[in-house]
Amino acid sequence: MRVNAASGAWVCMNCGEKGGDVLAYEIKTTGNDFVDAAKHLGAWVEDGRQSLPQKPTPLSPRQALSVMAFEATLIAVAAGNVANGVSLTDVDQARVMVASNRITRLVEAFQ
To answer: What does the pLDDT look like over 29-47, one tens digit per residue?
Structure first.
């Protein structure tokens, strides 16, 4: 095993595994999650606050960006049509509102 004393980065010369610090080494060798590994190393300080549960996100970040790009394009096209004097039908107006709401919900999910 080789360890960089300045940065804490490590590499196993036998299997080739590597990581950025002692916490990464603890996670890799024990399979613990971040909090449990930090507690095991004595690097976790309880501050008395309860941890907030993670909100599940409806999509992966990549999928969410793809949906937002599609919906934003639809809104931009509708805005361009209105700017050129084209009246949107009721169906088009409803679709623009759906697109706007989807973008808003995705932004809220990833905050």
So the answer is: 888 888 888 899 998 888 8
In the Cβ-directed half-sphere of 15, how many Cα atoms lie within 13 Å? 6
- Domain enclosing residue 23, as ranges: 2-41
Using DSSP bridges, classify how beta strands 2-3 and 18-19 pair: parallel, antiparallel or unpaired: unpaired
95 domain residue, yes or no: yes
Q: How far apart are CA 108 and CA 93, in angstroms?
A: 23
When divided into structural domains, the chain yields a total of 2
Q: Could you tell me the sign of the dihedral formed by the alpha carbons of 81, 83, 87, 93, in that order?
A: positive
Asked if 11 contacts 1 with a C-beta cutoff of 8 angstroms, the reply is yes
pLDDT digits 0-9 by tens, 70-97: 999 999 999 999 999 999 999 999 999 9
